[in-house]
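We emphasize that the prediction below concerns an isolated chain of 213 residues; any contacts that depend on oligomerization or on bound cofactors are therefore not represented. The input was used exactly as deposited, without trimming of termini.
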Amino acid sequence: MSPLSGRYALLLLAAALVTAVPIGLHSLSRLDRDDCVDPGALRFTLLIQGSQPVAEDTPLPRRMLQRSLGSVGAGVRGIPALEYAILRSFEPVRLVQRPARFVAGRFDAQGQELVWTERDGEWLPIHWTFERTRSLPLFVAYFFVYGSRPVAHPLLALLGSAPARLLTGARPLTLVVIAGQAPPGDLDAVEKVAEDWLFAAWAHYRGVCMEKS
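Result of the prediction step, given as a token string:
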């Protein structure tokens, strides 16, 4: 192997240093940035129509920015309230793995579907999962936000943003999830309450997190 020409050595060294700086900063999380304009207001979920927040005293895991919990009235007499959570983290695997666990505890999913749903020109990719073996069938519905937009497949969105993250750091993944249960005859009505709340939560996110044009 012929020795490296001295005239290229400095160029290669400079290139290595330029590459090392963003990698080093990224590994130390110094480039990570919350892309929500007002994350404090996002935590104020009482602004979401129908929401009844509950206090969360336990400390947040490392690199998690938000864990807001609460309930929403089912709107049907005798039906338990729906449980919701809004979570944001720089470690997306925490949120992508079994989103139902944040609102439903033990949950044995027996069916799942992704439904792109439109309201007033806004589209949400809502994931629906179901457990029908209980006396009251249980459902969990959720969507993800990454880069200030709803994404159907968060891991694919993260992979697509990998080159930019190397230079600009990570942005948090947001999970908005709600669960409810009802007898089969009332299930459609309760699912409608959940869908309404998900759209209201997305409107809340847009209103407090996105730059006004």
